[in-house]
Design a protein that fits this description.
Layout lengths: L3 E7 L11 H13 L1 E11 L9 E6 L2 E9 H20 L10 H18 L8 E5 L6 H7 L5 E5 L7 H4 L5 H8 L4 E4 L2 H14 L3 E2 L4 E4 L2 E7 L6 H7 L3 H13 L4 E8 L6 H14 L7 E8 L6 H21 L7 E4 L8 H7 L2 E4 L8 H9 L7 E5 L12 E3 L4 H12 L3 H17 L2 H14 L4
Parallel strand pairs: 1-2, 1-5, 2-4, 5-6, 6-7, 7-10, 11-12, 11-14, 12-13, 14-15, 15-16
Antiparallel strand pairs: 3-4, 8-9, 9-10
Bound molecules: GDP-alpha-D-glucose.
GDP-alpha-D-glucose binds next to helix 1, strand 11, strand 12 and helix 13.
């Protein structure tokens, strides 16, 4: 039986992962079931260290070995802030206008991936299955191969892959995609991402498509497929019954008795469409004045990547929009928007989801979006809330019974929200039941097993 080695930018203790959320739990479970290794950055930034060098830390968490590496300030700023979050994140979310193509960042990105490969190779066993996660580590498989690593390597991209013409704006686009061909299996969130991969390699690398999932280019064959990530539905539904969740639910239902509660939950990120959502909510109040005094939007925007200027600008824009809406429409006994720029405890979230009549999950672009799935799992099947979901979230490929919207169209989205607020109980129940079946059939366990089976079954070149 092969050992699993997970590599991701951040590493979590699987015994405490439930506090961190779904993905950490899923990866932790996969590692804990047979014992494995989880490798990544320690989260520690050292001042004055040498670029491309970092101290390594090892600790045992049950039967999982956690190995992490420190980054010096220069490496952190170019690899993490610069190239990963200043170039790849915006471009892969179609925001060329926000990308900072500073030529210096790529050198740091490559240097850190080379260092991680160098530190990982001595820890590997011949039959290991290596599973690399996300855009921070696209070149890692190629760096491992350069050090003669022969193990099977899988890579999963948690964010979208843009179409070729957008991807081509990254000066190193060919190098990035060529690096993916060092893997045996490449997983994407949605069929749209696979199609972008297929058209990119067809146009730019003259790839040969061998069958539904096999591509040959750059002298190697890769299996590329959509593995839409899910959540642990039963675990999340059970979380609605904890003391904190029940208290949150009871408190909100009491406070909003006879009124409507709309909810948005995300990291504060420009991909999530927060300004557009607030403008849509303002449109809803203008166009359907019966909501004035009776509909409240609770918007949680938990702090994220605050060291980047774009994120600071977004925060200012949101604060100004919330202030304007509350000033224009609010009254002594009612405020339309409750905006929370703090991290809400994971134990309270399920109660919050369950208390909401409508969830607004309206990103401008999103790899998948787990909030949409958490909202469905947390509902009371007898009286479920309605999911309003952006067609630009990967989740929209699966969650067809949500109300799908175009978040750029504030007018049209306001109309859809009004429909959601007025939806009869029988239709809410029917849609919820179908959505629940969908998230159950493709839950996080399915995701992990489907990916790892594809990796275990592939025949290395
Ligand atoms: C990336 C991709 C893809 C949010 N605010 C709070 C909080 N959260 C939790 C949610 C959810 C998670 O964070 C967010 O997951 P998403 O999937 O919605 O979005 P990203 O963080 O952008 O994740 C995305 C995902 O990777 C997995 O592949 O779906 O497309 O962008 O679990 O509940 N949790 C707590 N307090 C908060 O204030 N405790």
């Amino acid at each position: 039986m092969s050992r699993l080695v997970v590599v991701s930018n951040r590493v979590a203790d699987p015994r405490k992962a439930s506090a961190a959320g779904g993905l950490a739990v899923a990866l932790g479970e996969a590692l804990s079931s047979d014992g494995g290794l989880w490798f990544g950055w320690s989260g520690i930034i050292t001042e004055g260290g040498a670029p491309g060098e970092g101290a390594i830390h090892t600790r045992q968490a049950g039967n999982v070995r956690l190995v992490t590496v420190d980054l010096c300030r220069e490496d952190h700023d170019s690899y993490y802030l610069g190239y990963s979050n200043g170039v790849l994140w915006p471009v892969f979310h179609y925001r060329l206008d926000l990308a900072d193509f500073d030529a210096g960042y790529v050198a740091g990105y490559r240097r850190v991936n080379q260092m991680l490969a160098r530190k990982l190779v001595p820890l590997l066993k011949p039959d290991d299955l290596i599973w690399i996660h996300d855009y921070h580590l696209i070149p890692l498989a190629a760096e491992l191969r350069a050090l003669d690593c022969r193990q099977r390597i899988g890579f999963f991209l948690h964010i979208p892959l843009p179409p070729p013409l957008i991807l081509a704006a990254v000066p190193q686009h060919e190098w990035l995609i060529r690096s993916l061909f060092a893997c045996d299996v490449v997983g994407f969130q949605s069929q749209a991402d696979v199609e972008h991969f297929s058209s990119y390699v067809g146009q730019e690398a003259v790839a040969e498509k061998l069958d539904a999932h096999q591509f040959r280019a750059f002298g190697r064959r890769v299996h590329a497929q959509a593995f839409p990530i899910g959540i642990d539905v039963d675990e999340f539904a059970a979380l609605t019954q904890t003391k904190e969740a029940r208290e949150t639910h009871a408190h909100l239902r009491k406070e909003y008795a006879g009124r409507h509660l709309l909810l948005g939950v995300e990291r504060m990120d420009y991909s999530k469409g927060l300004p557009q959502r607030l403008k849509t909510f303002r449109e809803l109040l203008k166009k359907y004045p019966e909501n004035i005094g009776s509909a409240t939007l609770i918007q949680i925007a938990s702090p994220s990547r605050e060291a980047l200027d774009t994120y600071a600008g977004l925060r200012q824009e949101l604060e100004s929009l919330c202030g304007a809406i509350n000033g224009d429409f609010g009254d002594l006994d009612w405020m339309p928007v409750r905006y929370i720029h703090r991290n809400v405890s994971r134990r309270r979230l399920p109660g919050l989801y369950r208390a909401a009549d409508v969830a607004l999950v309206t990103p401008l672009r999103d790899g998948m979006n787990l909030v949409a799935k958490e909202f469905i799992a947390a509902q009371d099947p007898d009286d479920p809330g309605v999911l309003v979901l952006s067609r630009f979230a990967g989740a929209a490929e699966e969650l067809r019974e949500a109300i799908l919207v175009n978040p750029y169209d504030t007018f049209g989205t306001a109309e859809s929200i009004q429909l959601a607020l007025q939806m009869p109980l029988a239709e809410r129940q029917r849609r919820h039941q179908q959505l629940l079946e969908r998230i159950r059939s493709h839950d996080v366990h399915w995701w992990r097993e489907a990916f790892l089976s594809a990796l275990a079954e592939c025949v290395p070149e």
